[in-house]
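> call design_seq(struct)
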């Protein structure tokens, strides 16, 4: 069961999704992946091995070279929510933890997909697969996904992206829009995301959208002076920081470098990403993300 306060919030998000994000039209959006759909995009020169059935003979005759027709792939869209529920997602200094914020964002995306008659799939993971729902349609399915996500037993486990992506790829039968909801924090023993062949393979075949959840204390040290003891939720290692001016500058540099590395990784794989502070409203940033994607 969902608590009354969260249920009320989710009912509001259901209405908001149908009015605002639905305007982005998951189901009618053009895929950046080439297919054999019916909407013409452009011509391109023939290369050995191409399907000769797509040759435009009129254009080829004028250009004295073989030219093929390129089409946008238009088909029923599958939206997949991949949600990190590792122990670092429980952290919070705001009203909502990162874990609860992912429930709200997942609900918004799910309701939007359902209102556009898309299939919605769901995978929750830590260092193992915690929950899975195959793609289905309907508002009832969205509520089932939300209920499963919220009521998952809290885990003290770390993060294993390699396992999660392998599992996901084994279940995906066709191109999907995949939202990765995570803080992208992992222990030192975990492989770096950019080193995973499975992650790169996922990006080549699917439209992947990472949403990075951040807590205020993870990006800014508290005001004041003295010492601050921190413990990593993933590695359990402890660190004592001085709240001095120099230490603040070094902390800011580390955070900026981490953000830049994530952005560069996602950009190199053709992904449009979003960083979300859990203590701030998310609907407008989410709309901005979709507006940017429309222009790509």
């Amino acid at each position: 069961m969902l608590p009354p306060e969260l249920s009320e919030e989710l009912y509001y998000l259901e209405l908001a999704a149908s009015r605002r994000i639905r305007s982005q039209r998951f189901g009618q959006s053009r895929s950046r992946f080439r297919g054999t759909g019916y909407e013409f995009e452009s011509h391109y020169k023939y290369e050995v091995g191409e399907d000769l059935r797509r040759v435009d003979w009129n254009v080829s005759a004028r250009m004295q070279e073989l030219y093929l027709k390129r089409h946008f792939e238009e088909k029923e869209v599958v939206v997949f929510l991949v949600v990190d529920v590792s122990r670092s997602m429980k952290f919070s200094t705001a009203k909502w933890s990162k874990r609860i914020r992912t429930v709200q964002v997942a609900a918004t995306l799910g309701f939007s997909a359902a209102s556009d008659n898309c299939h919605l799939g769901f995978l929750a993971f830590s260092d193992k697969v915690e929950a899975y729902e195959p793609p289905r349609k309907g508002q009832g399915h969205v509520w089932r996904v939300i209920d499963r996500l919220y009521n998952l037993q809290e885990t003290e486990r770390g993060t294993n992206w390699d396992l999660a992506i392998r599992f996901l790829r084994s279940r995906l039968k066709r191109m999907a829009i995949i939202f990765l909801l995570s803080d992208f924090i992992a222990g030192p023993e975990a492989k770096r995301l950019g080193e995973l062949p499975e992650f790169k393979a996922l990006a080549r075949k699917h439209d992947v959208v990472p949403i990075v959840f951040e807590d205020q204390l993870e990006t800014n040290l508290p005001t004041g002076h003295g010492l601050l003891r921190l413990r990593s939720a993933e590695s359990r290692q402890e660190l004592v920081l001085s709240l001095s001016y120099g230490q603040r500058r070094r902390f800011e540099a580390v955070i900026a470098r981490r953000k830049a590395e994530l952005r560069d990784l996602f950009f190199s794989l053709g992904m449009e990403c979003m960083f979300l502070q859990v203590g701030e409203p998310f609907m407008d940033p989410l709309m901005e993300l979709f507006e940017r994607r429309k222009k790509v």
